[in-house]
Amino acid sequence: MVNGERQEATQSKLRGSCPSCEQEVVAKCGPLKIWHWAHKGKRNCDPWWEPETPWHRAWKDHFPAEWREAIQWSTSGEKHIADVRNAAGLVIEFQRSAISPLERMAREAFYEHLIWVVDGTRLKNDIPRFERGAKDLRGAIRSGYFMTRLPEECFPQTWIACSKPVFFDFGGHDGDHDRRSPMASGGNLWCLLPGRVDGNAVIARMSKTQFLEGAHQFAQAFPNHSILEEIAADITARREAERQAQIEYARRVRFFNATRRRPRF
Ligand SMILES: [Zn+2]
Hints:
By secondary structure, the chain is α+β, with helices and mostly antiparallel strands. It has two domains: 1-45, no CATH class; 47-261, no CATH class. It has helices at 54-60, 101-110, 126-134, 208-217, 226-261; strands at 15-17, 24-28, 36-39, 68-73, 79-85, 91-95, 114-119, 138-139, 145-148, 166-169, 188-197, 200-207. It is elongated. The relative contact order is 0.09. Residues 18, 20-21, 23, 39, 45 line the site of zinc ion.
């Protein structure tokens, strides 16, 4: 905040105050690092703070300035800064660095309506793992939805047990095609949904454009959880159809055997 207004770091040594802890911050606008505000001294006010990278910046720039670095209070007086909170209240956290399971769970508990966007290119093995794992995905009832019993063969372990949707960004742009990583290219985000259906993890493929449309308007995490119920109902219906087919088959076999054994004259 500079003179009572939110402002970007645009000029070196400009001073302001942090909207969260109200301590003094100073603008760092050098030639090497992305321009940013820094707290004086080394202390950061939010323990969940992650240093901003060009990857964060590029994502956040898709959203209006007043939605970025939104301060959120809990009823118990705990306070955190959300990367983006849209006008409807949905929080989007962009995560690049490693995060402990405890911190991940704490954030999921703190923000009721939350979606994660994770940099899927951070570790050398991230894309090759996904390329191998994605071969075993099975299509689900709706186009763009897939199932797997082994989501850990597609995504980093840290994110497997999330209670909120996690979108993996493998880089690339709409329309790109990379022969070496056909699944990860094309500017699609791959979302691991929370919860399981009949032991299967559900994964959704979404273009960045589609994602941004949702992220601008929805109040609740998406893809909507009802897709899991839809898939579960589909599995039950298929099983029932299979059972009926087996009963019918058994009936025909019995009938066939009975008629064969019957003497003809
Ligand atoms: Zn602060």
